[in-house]
Structures are given as structure tokens and as C-alpha cells.
Amino acid sequence: MSGAIFRDAWGIPHLRADGARELARLQGLVTARDRGWQIEVERHRAQGSSASFLGAGVLSWDVLVRRARIADTARRCLARLEERDPETADWIRAYVTGVNEGLDGHDAPEFARAGVLPGRWEPWTPLAVWLSTHLLFAGFPAKLWRDHAAARLGADVVGLFATDGPGTSGSNGWLVTGERTVTGQGVIAGDPHRFIEDPGVYQQIRLSCPEFDVVGLAVPGVPGIAHFGHTGTVAWAITNAMADYQDLYRERLRRTGAGIEALGPDGVWRRAARHTETVEVAGEDPVEVEVVETERGPVVIGGPEGLDGGVPEPGEPPLAVALRYPPRVTGDLGFGALLPLLRARRVADVDRAADLWAEPVNVLLAADTEGGTLHRVAGRVPVRSDANRVRLVPAWEPGHEWRGWHEPPRAGLDDGVAVMANQRGPAAPLGVEFAPPHRARRIAALLARQHRWSAAGMAAIHTDTHLASAAPLLDHLAALDAPGLTAPASALRARLLAWDRHMDAGSADAAAFAALRSAVVRRLAAEPALAAAASPPPYPDVFRPWLALVPRIGFALEHLLAAEDLFGIDRPAVVRAALEEVVAAPPSGAWGDTHRLAPWRALPSEDPREEPGLSGDHDCVLCTSAVPGITDLAARGPAARYVWDLARREDSRWVVPHGASGRPGSPHHRDQQPLWLAGDLAPVVTDWARLTKETDV
């Protein structure tokens, strides 16, 4: 068997091989060559060993991964594939073979800077990478916040703070059927919103063999094209369904001469699995981690003695919290869907593949060249009590067990259009908290402005900056007693009430609004009525972003300002004081001067260039998320943009932040950044004659 690597003008790899297995090896090889440092960081994160070279700052993550049994779960899932789907298991092994070939002698400069060498990938490593990437995707730490907030402020507060906080993962996606396009064929477009990393979290790639020819966005370290792909006759895309499929159980644990026991719902103490692992920490002593697993799942917080440094509430046992998540229960991650997706020819094929999907739970859109469409949820969500979905539940009480799986909901289209933007759509029965409807409504409204669309016209929707969630704060501003304001505050009030509500990088009004919003958030957080929730419980550091009060207020500000009552807080007085605060120290420039990209890198950048300013905001279609009250910097945003044209695949478009290569100094390390910043898209090249052959492999 043989294969070859081709490149287009953007350095995007186009791979051609004699069969699916050889193509998987080739994908692993080119991924290791292009993204070697990136995927090695992910391997270490997936097995809980990143602190060995990144230091104590990532120790809390490593401990969570060890305690959640990510690597062991990946091994279980691979073993199940080998038993039930040996072809997929062999395909994954071929990918890993390619990764190891590509990492052999890898000379990416980051390895030398970190003082590490590439390690060896095991057949289960891609599954562990996928699990660790999506461990916090369903937002189970939000249940820690709800528990904390309800205990400190009362049960009614949960609805007021209805947001998944700074860890929220979002995306936009829309499907326009042939009767609404200039070609008579469907178009699918969108952009996944994730933490922006350097290199990016998505890899543009083409996989071609006699069985299939697919372009799409792959996750480096994972074979195939899971989320966004176009086979020529059918295309698909996803967004996070915001489903709740992970549970947290309060456990009662006790040590015995034989180990640790956990109290079950039948009143019987049963032996829990227990062992210890050692986490190496660069520059510090190793840390020993006790790994405990009850019948509910792995214990991820606390233990028989409770929290580290924590004091149990009077009359309460020491706190231990177990996490229950579907792949740990079933041994199935959904990788059996990956090859069928590549082989899909019609919407029905994508639908059947989606039936095999497990985690994360997504809303899926698909369309084919015969006019078929698909709008459904894909993934596994357990049936259990409503209490499980909202908060921590007691493991020792009956009624909190899992009782099978929900049937994934389906939905239709409205006037030839379907929009998915993490709102309460088809996945509503499966979740608790969803994104506000603003992005979905705005996309639908923009699409309704004209009857027929082209693929080229979709970029304008990607980059829309209208901020509908500004309304409650502006309503409070409008209701202020204007004569009672100072002259500068009155002038700023008039400016903001006349503002077009677009968060454009060059807008001074957008900067002023953001400054006012942050001042309101900080002042609300300082109110005595909310002080009880200001000090989070001593949970591990990895959960702190979900428990910090200021970000919680920032992301829930719309609800908090619109609520009939907020613990007696005088919100007009808060807004008035915040307005005077801003005029006393106004922003010195435009929104993009402070709203700058802040990508995550495993190692600090050696590039002295300042990161670019951005348009957009959390609730804009152009979702570039700052944390109001904390920072204007944007760590999250569009991790890719795509437009899949079913009429002619070569008329499709895409872009990623930075570029196709993860190697600093490569001409393709940052060459797509100007396109990404401007909202432009690069063409998807499918003509082999227009590609440059790099090598036979």
C-alpha cells in the first residue's frame, strides 16, 4: 500500500492513499509533522502528566484527569471497539503508527524549550485525547456552582445565574436548503466557539482513498473528521447541544483495614476501588494522588477525610464527590461513527453514523446533493431524576440511579432554514442551561433578509457584531433620572442610548459600553447581599472558574438586571454609580484596543508582536468572549469558520485562526490570521492538479 502528501497554497495537507487504513497512518504522520508539539501536550494532558514539564500551574488538571480515570476509560473504550468493531480499532492503531513515525526525531523548538522529548503514543491515546478535550464540555462544574450558590443565597438564585460561566462552549451553525440558494443546492455554514489555542484546535485536512474523499476540520491527535466535513455529496456540521449527561454524587466514604468503602442507596457499605498514582511536577516534589472509584464513578473531589483544607458543615460528613459520565459506564466513546462518517454519501448515512455517537452530545446539521436534510441531536444522555441534572445528589439515597438513555430528539427546518447556536432548540429536553437565544435569533433574522443566498454571502453572517444582550443595561440607563447625573455622565448616557449596539473593534461607544458593563458587574459583586457567595468552597483549582462570583455575575448580567427583584439591591443606584465611575476614568480608545486576542499556549510565546484587537462579544454572532468585570481580553472565539457548498465543493470556504502549521517559523504558521481577523475565507481546493506534491509515503 502507498500514499502521498499534497499541499495547497495555505499549506493544508491533502492526503491520498490506497485504502482507509493506510490513509489513517498518513493522517497520523502528517499531524505529527505539522502539530507535533501540540499533540504531545494533549497526550500529556490526557494522561495527567503535563505538570512534569509545564510545572505546578497545571497540577490541578493532571490530578483531575488521574482521578477521573481518563486513560483507563480510553483503554476500556478501545477494548470494546476491538471486540465489537475491529475494523475501527485497527484503523485507530494505524493512525497511532503514523503519529509515532512522525514524532520520531521531531525537532519542534518547543521540545527543546521545555526540555522534553516526544513520547510514544499507545493505541488508546487518541481516545484519551478526545475524552480529556471534552471532559469539561458538558459543564458538570456548573453543578458545583449551583450547589454553592443555593446553599449561600437560597434555591431561587439558581435561575438568576443561569449560565455555564467562563467554561461555556458554544458555536454557530446554519443550514440553508436549495430553495433558498442561488444554485438550488444546500449550504451549511458556521463557526465553533472554543478557547483559541496556538496552534489552533482544528486542523484543515483532506482525506482521499478509493472509498471516500472528504475535506473537513479534524481534531489534532484524533483520526478522521468528526465534527465538520464535506464528502462531495453530503456535508455535516455540529454545535454543542448543551445537554446534561454528567452527574455528580456526594459520597459517604470510610476507611477500613481493607481499603475504602462507600455507602450505597440500599444502606450497604461496599468496597470502593482504590490505588495511588504519582504525578511528577517540574521543579517540585512529586505529588501522590489517591484514586478512588465507587459504584457511581470516580471520586474527583475530596475523599474519606473530605476536602483538602476544607471543614465539613456542622452535622455533615466529610465531602467526597464522584463523577458519573457515559463512556466510563458503557465503555463506548462513539468512535464507531468515525469511519461511517467518512464513507457517507447521503444524509441517511450521516444519520446512521450519528446513532453510534456518544460524547460530546451535539446538535447535528447535514445536507446532501439530492435535497436531503438532517437536524437532530447526536450523543448519549442518561435518563435519571431531575435533581441529578441540577445539583449534587446523595449517593446513599435511592432515586438517583441511571435508567437507560434518552432517544436523541430531532427537529425540522423553518422556511428552508435551520439554525443551531446552543439555544433551547431540539436538545431542550436534555439540558438545564442553554445559551441565550440572541445569536440564534440574529442569524435567523439575517438569513431572512434575502430569499436566496450564495456560499460567498455567508461570511457576512459570521462576522455580525450586534449585541442584543446589551438591552437590559441600556434599559436601566434609559430609566435613570437624567437631571440627577453630572454633565459628563449625562453626555455618556446619551451616547450609549444612541449607540447602534454593534461591538466593532473600532467603536469607541462599544468600548464605553463594555467599561460600564464591567463597572456594574464589579459593583454588584461587592453588594453585601451577594457577599455570602463570594468565597468559593476549597475545591481543586481546576474548578475555580465556575465558582468565582464576578465572572458568574458577568455572564448572567442580563438575567440579574431584568429580574423582578435582586435581593433588594438598588440596581438603578448601581448603574448610576457605575456610569459616574466610567466618566471619571473613561476608556482611552476603541473596543479593539482592549478587546484583544489572548490565545492559550502551553509555553509563553517568544513572538514579541502584540495580539490583535477583535470585534464581537460573548452574545454576538461573532462570539469573541471577554469576562466582564475581569478582563476585556478574549480567550474564546471562532476556532474555525466554514461554508460547505453542496452545489460545488470547490466553492466551499474555510479559515482557522493562525494557520495550518503548528511550527513557529513556518510560512503557514500565521498566514490565515489576516483572513480570520477580517472575516474572510480561503477557498477549499479539490483539484489535485492545483496542489503541490510534497512526498510519497
Task: Write a structural description.
The protein has 697 residues and is α+β, with helices and mostly antiparallel strands. The chain contains 24 helices and 25 strands.
Strand order of the largest sheet: 17-16-8-7-6-5-2-1-25
Shape: globular
Sheet having the most strands: 9 strands, mixed
Kindly state the percentage of residues in helix.
25-40%
Low-confidence stretches: none
Q: Helix/strand/pairing class, anyone?
A: alpha+beta
How many β-strands, per DSSP?
25
Give me the number of helical elements. Answer: 24
Give the radius of gyration: 25 Å
Mean pLDDT comes to 95
Q: Report the sheet-strand fraction.
A: 15-25%
Distance between the termini: 10 Å
Pfam families: Penicil_amidase
Organism: Streptomyces griseorubens
Keywords: Hydrolase, Zymogen
Family: Belongs to the peptidase S45 family.
Topology (elements, then pairings):
Blueprint: E1 3-7, E2 13-17, H1 20-47, H2 51-54, H3 59-67, H4 70-84, H5 86-103, H6 109-114, H7 125-134, H8 141-153, H9 157-160, E3 170-176, E4 187-195, E5 203-209, E6 212-218, E7 228-230, E8 234-240, E9 247-251, E10 253-256, E11 259-263, E12 269-279, E13 287-293, E14 299-302, E15 320-324, H10 326-330, H11 338-342, H12 347-354, E16 362-368, E17 373-378, H13 386-390, E18 393-394, E19 417-420, H14 438-447, H15 459-462, H16 471-479, H17 487-498, H18 508-525, H19 544-547, H20 549-555, H21 557-562, H22 571-584, H23 591-594, E20 625-627, E21 631-638, E22 641-645, E23 653-655, H24 673-678, E24 682-683, E25 692-696
Parallel strand pairs: 2-5, 9-18
Antiparallel strand pairs: 1-2, 1-25, 3-4, 3-19, 4-21, 4-22, 5-6, 6-7, 7-8, 8-16, 9-15, 10-11, 11-12, 12-13, 14-15, 16-17, 20-21, 22-23, 23-24
Protein name: Penicillin amidase
Pfam families: Penicil_amidase
Family: Belongs to the peptidase S45 family.
